[in-house]
Amino acid sequence: MTTGLFTHPDCEQHAMLGHPERPERLRAVMQRLADSGLEDEMRVTQATEISDATISLTHPQEHIALIASSEPEVGTTKIDPDTYLSQGSLRASRLAAGACVEATEAVLSGKIDQAFCAVRPPGHHAEVARAMGFCLFNNLAIAAEVALQDPGVERVAILDFDVHHCNGTVDIFKDRQEVLVCSSFQQNFYPYRYLDFENDHIINTPLVAGTDGSLFRQQVEQDWLPALARHAPDFIFISAGFDAHTDDPLGQLCFDDTDYDWVTKQLRDVAKQMASGRLVSTLEGGYDLQALAGSVETHVAALLQG
Ligand SMILES: [Zn+2]
Hints:
binds zinc ion; 10 strands
């Protein structure tokens, strides 16, 4: 089995002093993948920038134009209290989305079986026409649209275990039966949007602050796995945020590496059973550098064990 690693060093150009979503995150992830030897077991691809035409599968031209015009020549521009652009942000965000699309195309063409995208800025809070929560474009939603254009892909699933609910992904796919979205998240927590929105193909897994991984695993077994069995996706996408880790400074959930190992193996097995192994995972949150690096190592190692 061949696993791709899609990344680009220019994803570090997106930077604002003192912001938790910082370039060091990507550096820590890449350093760990190199030090652990996992990178040597993967086919590494330098991502290229996504085109406006591909972004527009998900976001309207006005949104693309707003992001493009918001990049400052010096300093930072804030789109909302949490979300900024610096010089280089546009390129970083186009590379992040481009990595997810290229990974998806490589899996669809059979060049690789599955992939992990080590990119930033993250994407899952970006709604159809709204950048928020550190996210400019919804990287994985765009990739899912690309997958759905393939004649061999009728249904996809997006599984999100970030500590924050994936309001952007829900906003984009709330009326699209062919896209199953399962999201676990800390209850009564950012983004305060779509938290109660559920239907047959939008599955919410709220977890009270302080919850450890055992309840998360129960909920995945009780809700996600049956939903996946019903949906029978042709392609599995993972919004892999690691800020539910017990050491993370933003969230108050208490997952550890064994939980990321467990959930990754569950989703990898689902991909093998239902989707011919086709799986693309991308980095979302995770703000303690040590915990983030360790969690990504665990996640990628579990994918490779398939
Ligand atoms: Zn998050």
